[in-house]
Amino acid sequence: MIRRLAGEIREFKKDAFMTPMFMLLEVAMEMTIPLLMARIIDQGVSAGQMDQILIVGFFMLIAAAIGLFAGVMGGKYGARASAGFARNLRKAMFARIQTFSFANIDRFSSASLITRLTTDVTNLQNSFQMILRIGARAPASLIVAMTMSFYISPRLAMIYLYAALILAVFMMVLVSITRKIFEQVFKKYDELNASVEENISGIRVVKAYVREAFETSKFHLAADNLYHMFIKAERLMVGMMPVMMGMVYACILLISWNGAHLIVGGELTTGELVSLLAYCMNILMSLMMLSMIFVMVTMSIASAERITEVLTEVPTISNPDNPLMEVRDGSIDFMHVDFAYNDRSIEYALTDITLHIDSGETIGIIGGTGSSKSTMVNLISRLYDAKNGLVRVGGEDVRKYDLETLRKQVSVVLQNNVLFSGSILDNLRWGDPEATEDECINACKLACADEFIEKLPDGYDTYIEQGGTNVSGGQRQRLCIARAILAKPKVLILDDSTSAVDTATDAKIRKAFREEIPGTTKIIIAQRISSVSDADRIVVLDNGRIDGVGTHDELLAGNAIYRDVYESQTGGGTADFDEGGASHA
Questions:
Q1: 3-class SS at 407?
Q2: Residue where one domain finishes, among candidates 253, 288, 315
Q3: Going edge to edge, which strands form the sheet with 545-550?
Q4: Is the same domain home to 562 and 489?
Q5: Helix or strand run (H / E) with residue 446
Q6: Do 108 and 75 lie in a common domain?
């Protein structure tokens, strides 16, 4: 884990190296000041030598100035190193997430990924800066101060040693307890972010159903859970402060008491006692700083593990060696395909799917909710991989293709239509970044999107809000279809992508497909039989199995599910895919 995270320091290695160097220089200057102070007292003040006071005072001033400079430079380099480290971590995590398959994404909720990219990385950034600065400064200060104390008076220095050992044991016990709590804290962060994300993305539904009070109570519950976990952890951590301060005062009292006796006995000078008291504060302050590092590192260990989980997650779908870089045509073959979302699943979502689709053919897919229609088409573009059997596109196993090449040639308009913030043209050019405005307009005509775009004040330059919230569901669907067409794919998949448009517009879109892109294989998933009735063939799915394949007329004559649903949708019956029609499977 440490090696993987340390690799993200990269170009900031110099800054990461210079930070502790300057901090060590600062410590060296700080440690000389008590010695110079002792000389001022013993050789200047006690002896009445003003020149010694001035000379030694001048050197103290220089040491203080050098220490100040070193502290400033340490802060500068430390900030640059930690900020750069955090930047690289976020870039690496985001890049890794882009390689995830749907199966990988299913492992992490979007709220959890956001927490890892923000809160967890910030924790590591703060911890890294603290380690570079205080992690170098505190141990060096502790060691040097302890060494100088033993040099001045081994007898009094033993007081520091015992105090340091007691505090070290106390901190180790505390860290082991709080680490487990902080692991739970970040899970609560995930729950809080999930509540916020869900509420904001669905705010229109929340208001439509007057569920503000319910959502508020849900958020308060998540916030309270996080609050109580932090209180539990912080209560333990703040217990360190009174122990530390108690140890500081106990050391000062013991040193003052024993030091006074040594001065009376002639074994110690007044200046040396002052130096010992200064070193006492250095030692105990160093221990306090180390305790702060322990607290921060304890929090960061949980964050580091969560970040490493993302960075080391192996994509379940990746490019093969020597991948194919060209898709010959839009033909598709399913050969005895089985699929399950989870390796531990007893039942398959798809079972023994065998189907051949010719290039340029229009295929309709119909079935009840949960019949795995979307799952089936997701296998074509390798959003998932089949567990058993083979899926071919252009006569080749989809696992042999370069992923980018395959997905550019298999355009999918998913059920959940997503638009991104930017102009309409910006969104359309997701299909082809080099597309001209005329090409974008032509794609919109095929998708019947030009009808509403031309009525907008800014036309194709109209700004789309994040998620497309300022356009209707039907408009959003048509823009997504136009975006897919613009990619000029060999296979175009519409996953219930015209459900929000009226039947007349639906018919216009299908007519445009037949006339304008006849060579493209078109797969249309729909609930309305009218949306697929003119397809070359229609596939009826039931519980993950193919129940029938044929033209509209053939299925009406020979498939009970299709016939019953057709009659229900045309007023001749009461069945639908999820009720009576499915009973004939």
A1: helix
A2: 315
A3: 410-413, 491-495, 521-525, 362-367, 537-542, 545-550
A4: yes
A5: helix 437-446
A6: yes
The total of other beta-carbon atoms located within 10 Å of residue 167's CB is 19
pLDDT in tens, 509-567: 888 888 888 889 999 998 888 888 889 999 999 889 999 999 999 999 989 889 888 88
In a domain? residue 556: yes
Q: The tokens of 425 are what?
A: 């043209």
The neighbour count for residue 577, using CB atoms within 10 Å, is 22
pLDDT tens digit sequence for 318-331? 888 899 999 999 99
Tell me, yes or no, whether 252 lies in a domain: no
Same-domain check for residues 305 and 427: no
Q: Determine the 3-state secondary structure of 337 from DSSP.
A: strand
Token pair recorded at residue 206: 């929340």
CA dist., res. 104 & res. 84, Å (int): 28
Pairing of the two strands 537-542 and 388-393:
unpaired
Look up the domain containing 508 and give its range: 332-569
**Which residue shows structure tokens 């379940």?**
316
563 and 479 in a common domain: yes
Residue found under tokens 């059920």: 415
Q: Is 134 exposed, middle or buried (0-12, 13-18, 19+ CB in 10 A)?
A: buried
CA distance 317 to 313: 12
CA distances from 178 to 14, 129, 243 (A): 33, 21, 17
CATH code, domain with 413? 3.40.50.300
Q: Are 365 and 524 in contact (CB under 8 A)?
A: yes
Which two tokens mark 169?
């044991």
Tokens 């333990």, residue? Answer: 236
Buried b (16+ CB within 10 A) or exposed e, 228-258: ebeeebeebbeebeeebeebbeebeebbeeb
CA dist 229 and 89 (Å) reads: 27
